[in-house]
Design a protein that fits this description.
Layout: E1 12-13, E2 18-20, E3 25-31, E4 37-43, E5 46-51, E6 55-62, E7 64-69, E8 76-79, E9 82-86, E10 91-96, E11 101-108
Antiparallel strand pairs: 1-3, 2-3, 3-4, 4-11, 5-10, 6-9, 6-11, 7-8, 7-10
Amino acid sequence: MSAIPIEFPNVTALAKANVYFDGKVVSHSILFQDGSKKTLGLIYPGEYHFGTDKAERMEIIAGACQVKLDGQETVSAFTADQYFDVPAKSGFSITIAEGICEYICSFID
């Protein structure tokens, strides 16, 4: 696996947060000069389901989670420095048992 970045130079950070599930999932968008976008976020303990429009790569930068992709029976565990990909027009369920899971979400064209 490639190293997960620790910083993103020369980006525009949007101050308005994306808040989901009564504040238990919060992210901020960053915009790159090439027009691409990522979100940086926190997920507090609980179980959540997200739908996707575009394909996404979820990189875990701290904490741990359990993930089940829509249409699959397997639940997989992820920790810091690991990632999972979610197909476009799909979704995933994510469970955080304890602590806070920090992530980078990249939107894949």
